[in-house]
Design brief:
Helix content: under 10%
Largest sheet: 12 strands, antiparallel
Number of strands: 14
Radius of gyration: 16 Å
Structural class: mainly beta
Number of helices: 0
Distance between the termini: 14 Å
């Protein structure tokens, strides 16, 4: 699978990424996603994801022309931005082991690791870092499942634990491929 680079020259997908090729493209939420957590008021949000590559053995997600994977979430009613995440997805060659490296505009940096089984990516945080003045309570653990459903929709569930709450489902959303 070839994808345009920032110079509009198509590059071949690195063979290491073939098992993750189902993620490539732009995905937009069908309906607002659901956000819940015991310490906050439930909310709904929209989100747009963009996954692509530049021929390296990594799926990148960041902003601007090198954008390879990007999360942008907005409040469903006010369209107010909620968060932005960017980073990289790597797969260990010859295995189903995957790492997801994420930086959030809130000052949280995550390294999630897990396994790819078919069209499902199941991840758990291995390391979390944060800015010294991050809002409390601090996130202590994150779990994430991304899966391509039989109907062609992408589904994401994110669970979170904080200083004062156990691991609990936090976000749920489905997306349709827009390109």
């Amino acid at each position: 699978m070839a994808a345009p680079t920032d110079g509009n020259v198509a590059v071949q997908l690195n063979p290491v990424l073939k098992p993750l090729s189902w993620l490539l493209g732009t995905w937009e939420s069908d309906e607002p996603g659901e956000g819940t957590f015991p310490t906050i008021k439930p909310f709904r949000y929209t989100e747009k994801l963009h996954f692509s590559h530049v021929g390296q053995p990594v799926i990148n997600f960041t902003s601007f022309l090198t954008v390879l994977f990007r999360f942008n979430a907005f409040h469903a009613e006010s369209n107010k931005p909620l968060h932005r995440e960017c980073g990289f997805i790597r797969i260990q060659p010859g295995t189903n082991k995957v790492a997801f490296i994420i930086a959030q505009n809130s000052g949280l940096v995550e390294i999630e690791e897990g396994e790819l089984t078919g069209n499902q990516l199941k991840l758990q945080s291995q390391s979390l870092g944060r800015i010294s003045f991050a809002k409390e309570p601090h996130v202590q653990q994150i779990g994430r499942v991304l899966q391509l459903r039989p109907d062609g929709k992408l589904e994401q569930t994110v669970s979170m634990a904080t200083d004062n709450q156990p691991l609990t489902q936090h976000l749920y959303i489905t997306y349709s491929r827009s390109s």
